[in-house]
Design a protein that fits this description.
Elements: E1 2-6, H1 21-32, E2 38-40, E3 43-50, E4 57-64, H2 71-82, E5 89-95, E6 103-106, H3 115-124, E7 130-135, H4 145-149, H5 155-178, H6 180-187, H7 191-194
């Protein structure tokens, strides 16, 4: 089974913030793939299958119900519940260092300053899991990054970020069905450049 976790903070207050892009991708995938999410321990979780009928891929979609900085605890619990290992995991999250809507898949590596990813690396004891990053851009010079990620997405960025969310769902499906390398080749550009 492949496990896809979208990071965010719990509660309506944070639902439309930049930091919750990962959770939005999981919600969009859940709707498109007809996999309903239900509370299960410290996550919202849904399981199902995607891909061709002759080679379906068993997947779990999850959104931690913990605060972003404690995502690792929820992910460890989730993997144990499902009997999965870190190499079965893909984490979807926002990235300040990329333009809004831009996608990037990585097989492993450091947290890049993302506290949710840092928590997961710490709790798992490894950085050997796939990440799908979605750009949210940087705040204006002098503005605080911590405040910026917790602000709602601006109207100026909404269209490109929504396109990025849609492209992220497609990239996940490609990675799951065709492999991470195929998805990397197709989706390392801004969403509208793919259309």
């Amino acid at each position: 089974m492949r496990v896809i976790v979208g990071l965010g903070n719990p509660g309506d207050r944070y639902a439309h913030t930049r930091h919750n892009i990962g959770a939005r991708v999981i919600e969009r995938a859940s709707a498109q793939w007809s996999i309903s999410l239900k509370s299960a321990g410290s996550t919202r979780l849904g399981t199902g299958r995607i891909g061709p009928v002759d080679k379906p891929v068993d997947i779990a979609l999850a959104i931690p119900l913990t605060w972003m900085n404690q995502s690792g605890t929820a992910v460890v619990e989730l993997l144990a519940r499902l009997g999965c290992a870190p190499q079965d995991l893909t984490v979807v999250h926002d990235d300040l260092d990329m333009e809004p809507g831009r996608l990037r898949l990585k097989r492993s590596g450091g947290a890049g300053g993302h506290n949710g990813v840092s928590s997961i690396i710490t709790e798992l004891g490894t950085d050997q899991f796939v990440r799908l990053k979605i750009g949210i851009g940087r705040p204006a010079p002098g503005a605080d990054s911590a405040d910026y990620v917790l602000e709602p997405i601006t109207k100026d960025d909404a269209t490109v970020i929504e396109t990025g969310v849609d492209q992220a769902v497609q990239a996940l499906e490609c990675a799951l069905v065709e492999g991470v390398d195929a998805a990397m080749n197709k989706f390392h550009v801004r969403g509208e450049e793919q259309l």
